[in-house]
Amino acid sequence: MTVLPVENVQDYPRPPRLERVAQPLRVVFAGVEIAHADAGSAWRVLETHHAPTYYLPPAAVLGAALMPSSRETWCEWKGRATYVDLVLNGRRSRNAGWLYPAPTARFDPIRDHIAFYATSVDAAFVGDIRVVPQPGDFYGGWVTPNLTGKIKGAVGTTHW
To answer: How many angstroms separate the CA atoms of 26 and 85, rounded?
Structure first.
């Protein structure tokens, strides 16, 4: 059974911090485990008032299920993000994941690593804990029961 330390999202730093993930990560879509990262192989980004965002190494993701999307966004800390759709077993989840092909120097360790919106997949896990999506449709954090504090994303929280 996975036990995560209690963390208050208000204590996370700004600018954000990058750290290794001590637990394995899994993502399921269309009845298939499309990603499995071993403990210590993935990264997470911690930023004030955000649930952690998890970045899985490219080798941990079923590449055949990824289709490039035309969507791009800009992060003041990490740089330009490109998006991918998930397409598998007759299902498509648009802009389900994103990556940084040329991140800023500080975030170079997550180059080409893929993060998935928990709302865009059937299930995502940190260890054996099933995550809940970060509120709203902008942020892609994974909420686990060990998190305390006010998590950004719900209506009225996007600009504080």
So the answer is: 17
Domain boundaries of the chain, sorted by first residue: 8-148
Q: What does the radius of gyration of the chain's CA atoms come to, in whole angstroms?
A: 15
Look at residue 81 and tell me whether its pLDDT is greater than 80: yes
Convert the pLDDT of each residue in 110-135 to its tens digit.
Answer: 999 999 999 999 999 999 999 999 99
Q: How many CB atoms lie within 10 A of CB 92?
A: 11
What gap in Å lies between CA 51 and CA 44, rounded to an integer?
A: 10
Rounded to whole angstroms, the Cα distance separating 40 from 24 reads 7
pTM of the model: 0.96
Count of Cβ atoms closer than 10 Å to residue 43 Cβ: 20
CATH homologous superfamily of 8-148 equals: Domain of unknown function (DUF427) (2.170.150.40)
